[in-house]
Design a protein that fits this description.
By secondary structure, the chain is an all-alpha fold. The protein has 17 helices and 2 strands. A two-stranded antiparallel ribbon has the order 1-2. Helix 9 packs antiparallel against helix 16 and helix 10 packs antiparallel against helix 16.
């Protein structure tokens, strides 16, 4: 299998007939409807949680600690969540995890609305939510294949991201209004109740229409088996490495945006909600563009990651608020392109029997790196300012993208060709064998 930047990461599935072709499938349509309601609540809670912690402590580091605690379970136990997702029936598993996530939102709402909330309460609920996510995330990611089948998998993965980002258009804006008008508690309450929608959608599905996927039997060594499977395939290991760097160092936006709003622009929760909404506009555009593509190419992944890192550096240096805000649209678009392209290419290149473990590793490095990056960049942002923190995160993401791109080219038997002649493509990856043959002929 070719694994260079110009190669497909997997055999191309049947081309989709439209951007929204997966929605023709009833079970997936129910799933998507439930998720858009729940995702709206999730974004409302994210904004309210970050702003509540900043209000209680006045520290960007405290926001970083909250984020770290929410994603620490994924770093510690993420691979075990993938084993459970491969072993257990996913629909009942998701009913349990979605119910548990509803309870964490309602508990935080009660504490906030009664005026009893303290920062350690937020830390605890964030950690508990992270524990549930360890199982929910790989189960939800891999359940998509059971709903739509292999031909529509790439399209459905892209539409899932579009679903999440469309909710991000609404959630932050509504959260900003609610926080300003009545406080954070009602945003937490909405999030808790919003999980009724995905629970109802799971109950209404026709189980006979689900595509049967062979579940992994209970046995020893399943975790090691999954790691060996990934390590032997360059088309899996290098995208996962890249997404790990980008997720750990480049996706610390709750820290950076709260600090930019609070310290640089001297504004409030409504401005924070606006910036998140603008990022969502770009992310939604990136997701919909990905849904139009029939295949996921690794060169798109690397190119999007390069632009993502470069745009973060430029945004950090933006002199005016409106320039910074517009750049957030582009950052959101290319950041989402990185996520969706990596997700769909990895799923389509993975055997269904180990897909849960592979996707748990993907999510572990993407969001599990936050317990490392969150506190680190919270401290850097407090000590040196948000501009330095954002620029450094972008520089690390850019360097990782360039490094992984060169490694993928090397593993795919390609080399970078530089041609400065007029009318020729100045930079291009070409097969080494072809270049050596041309040299020999000369």
């Amino acid at each position: 299998m070719r694994t260079g930047p110009g190669a497909d990461s997997a055999p191309a599935p049947a081309p989709t007939t439209s951007m929204f072709s997966s929605l023709k499938i009833r079970n997936y349509r129910l799933f998507a409807t439930g998720q858009v309601v729940s995702n709206t609540g999730t974004w409302m809670q994210r904004i309210a949680q970050d702003w509540l912690v900043l209000t209680l402590t006045g520290s960007a580091s405290a926001v970083g600690i909250t984020i770290a605690l929410q994603f620490l379970p994924m770093l510690l136990f993420g691979l075990y969540g993938g084993v459970l997702a491969d072993r257990l029936p996913k629909r009942p598993l998701l009913l349990a995890t979605q119910s548990a996530m509803a309870l964490t939102g309602i508990a935080l709402a009660v504490l906030t609305l009664t005026g009893e909330v303290q920062v350690w309460h937020v830390y605890l609920t964030a950690f508990l939510l992270g524990l549930v996510t360890v199982v929910d995330n790989p189960a939800r990611q891999t359940f998509v294949a059971e709903m739509v089948g292999p031909d529509q998998l790439g399209n459905a993965v892209s539409l899932n991201s579009a679903n999440f980002q469309s909710a991000r258009l609404v959630g932050p804006a509504v959260a900003g209004v609610l926080i300003t008008a009545v406080g954070s508690g009602y945003a937490f309450l909405f999030n808790g109740l919003s999980f009724l929608a995905p629970i109802a959608s799971l109950l209404l599905m026709r189980t006979a229409d689900l595509h049967k996927v062979e579940r992994a039997p209970r046995g020893k060594g399943q975790l090691r088996e999954g790691l060996r499977y990934v390590s032997s395939r360059p088309e899996l290991i290098w995208p996962i490495v890249l997404i790990g760097f980008v997720g750990t160092f480049g996706f610390n936006f709750p820290i950076w945006l709260t600090a930019f709003v609070h310290d640089v622009y001297d504004s409030g929760a409504s401005t924070y909600g606006l910036l998140n909404t603008l990022m969502a506009v770009g992310s939604l555009a990136g997701a919909l563009l990905a849904a139009r593509r029939a295949t996921s190419r690794l060169r798109i992944l690397v190119g999007a990651a390069v632009l993502f890192g470069a745009l973060e550096i430029v945004a950090a240096l933006a002199p005016e608020f409106w320039i910074f805000a517009l750049l957030m649209v582009l950052v959101g678009m290319f950041g989402l392109t990185v996520n969706v392209t990596a997700n769909s290419s990895i799923q389509m290149a993975t055997d269904p029997a180990v897909r849960g473990r592979v996707m748990s590793l993907f999510m572990m490095v993407f969001v599990g790196g936050t317990p490392l990056g969150g506190p680190l960049f919270g401290w850097i942002t407090d000590a040196y300012g948000p501009r330095v923190g954002l620029a450094l995160g972008g520089a690390i993401s850019l360097a990782a993208a360039l490094g992984v791109g060169l490694l993928l080219a090397r593993s795919g038997g390609l080399r970078l060709k530089v041609d400065l002649r007029r009318g020729h493509k100045h930079l291009a990856f070409v097969p080494k064998q072809r270049e050596e043959s041309l040299t020999a002929a000369v």
